[in-house]
Amino acid sequence: MSLSVGSIDFSREWVSSQPQPTSTAQISTQASTTSPAVAAHPRFRGCVVRRWSAVLVKDIPASWRGRAPAHHTPLGGSLTPTGARTGDRGGLASTDVPSLSSAVSAALAGAAGLAVVAAHDLLQRKHSILRNYPVIGHARFLLEGVRPELQQYFVERNWDGRPFDRDIRSIVYERAKGIAGEQAFGTERDVNEPGYEYLVHSSLPVPEPEQPPRVTVGGPDCTRPYSMSLLNVSAMSFGALSANAIRALNQGAATGGFAHDTGEGGLSPYHLEHGGDLVWEIGTGYFSTRTKDGDFDAAQFREKASYDVVKMTSLKLSQGAKPGIGGVLPAAKVSQEIAQIREVPQGEKCVSPSTHRVFTTPVQLIEFVARMRELSGGKPAGFKLCVGSRVDVLAMVKAMLEVGTTPDFIIVDGSEGGTGAAPLEFEDHVGMPLTFGLMTVHNALVGAGLRDRVRVGASGKVAAGNDIVKRLIQGADYTNAARAMMFAVGCIQAQRCHTDTCPVGVTTQSARRQRALVVGDKSVRVKQFHEATVAEAVKLMAAMGVRDPADLSPHQLRLNISPHENRSYAELYEWLEPGELLTDPPESWAGDWAAASADTFRPTSRRT
């Protein structure tokens, strides 16, 4: 088949006989010698131009291909950067690379979108910065959103992060993974800085005991004492933590031989699943043991306290991070399951009252603790508090003397302790730090001649072996850790605990987010962190010449007063002698001792 255009017989044979160009220069020559009538013929456009396209694409730099605009051909059409002529069915489809018109359309759409955002920003009335700086003002909120991550990963130094610095987080992560957690080249801390504390080693260290020492909790009125580890899982509720986090902590406690405090949120199935030793904590909401009107249910308590895994029961008076306001579980975390366990409405903020219904005086407090011990079948019973007034502590001590019984233990929670949700004013400005609260409780019991009947636990930023030894010197018999245990199960200190959006599944009730936390793996990490940390504490005590924690002395902990002076805790603070408050109270304690009454938590006289 052939067609005539002018004087040329235009056929397939003719097209095929045309020389194949090898450069853009030859294409230009062919184009200039081809008549317009021939160039416009579809067969010429469909056959000859394809061969030209291959040469044009070859001459396009590789870095331009796929993003350069279409190239116009000498015949009036255009060639895309891939060599296909626009509108031609041959070669690659023209939709493989956006055409110029598509790019213009996208740009116009983007501009329209920005215009809509700008109009919204100018008209909205909530954010001043957006009214003055539409569109670009959103950068401020974006940067605020990523500020914690930028601060933690790129700004803070190894030793000055808060609440926990990078050094502490790293040592927990490494020990949880079974890594030694050692460091090279020496300390990065300023050892001459005021406030720096250090332990006093001995010139004659002693061998480490084969097994870490343990503490027997249970006074003379307790018939089923419990052997407590030097480090345990501090109070964290199901609800504040996810089900998988509770499972991992409890399984770690079961395999590692230490106790797991349930927190005040109730005794959940996840606390019971792996058989770890439990300290069942009862708060002002009496969750898991409450009547319909929110009062304490003795029958429920007796039944659940009899579980074999429940080794001790604890009454929460206050918490270090938010003393005086009770507990708060945000509405976002009150799922149907949590509502059933706590016996509260689903989807509403769950607030534990600030005060208890079961007592209003120190005497009633001590009597209720004794009742808890009786209902549990003789298991150790005690209470937890963040110390506020020293008079309150002394009033409790006087109540113990009056009633004739004591709690088996007292847990002192420092104001530096953590929480899932609390007002900033309470976190930062209410409550006594652990150092002073611990020494207050210890000295009050010693001065009243009751210290040998009551074990003292300490909680508040305990994460390393030196933290354990330091608290033992200050008056504790054992320690509890919450956030360090959270690090062991994967916490990255995102500080989103109250939002239910924890990125690692530790403090969320989202099933999708909880999936990130693999119980089997994280339970091993909890066990390994506990084991390594207690081992380091024992090693430190051996270096100090001590095998039994009871032999530690305030002389073995020193504090820098200035860059040129340091003193031991024995020199800095007053340490009462056994029974001293009963015979001849020192002047510094006499006023508070006189103001304290077993019948009220209010001071009864003016203190000096």
UniProtKB/TrEMBL annotation:
The chain positions of domain Glutamate synthase read 231-546
The protein's matches in InterPro entries, at most eight in alphabetical order, are given as:
Aldolase_TIM, GltB, Glu_synthdom, YerD
> What biological-process terms (Gene Ontology) are attached?
glutamate biosynthetic process
Q: Which domain of life is it from?
A: Bacteria
Give a Pfam family name.
Glu_synthase
Q: Where is this region: Disordered?
A: 13-35, 67-95, 587-608
User: Which Gene Ontology MF annotations are present?
Assistant: glutamate synthase activity
Ranges annotated as biased composition (Low complexity): 16-35, 588-599
Q: Which family does it belong to?
A: Belongs to the glutamate synthase family.
Instruction: Please give the name of this protein.
Output: FMN-binding glutamate synthase family protein
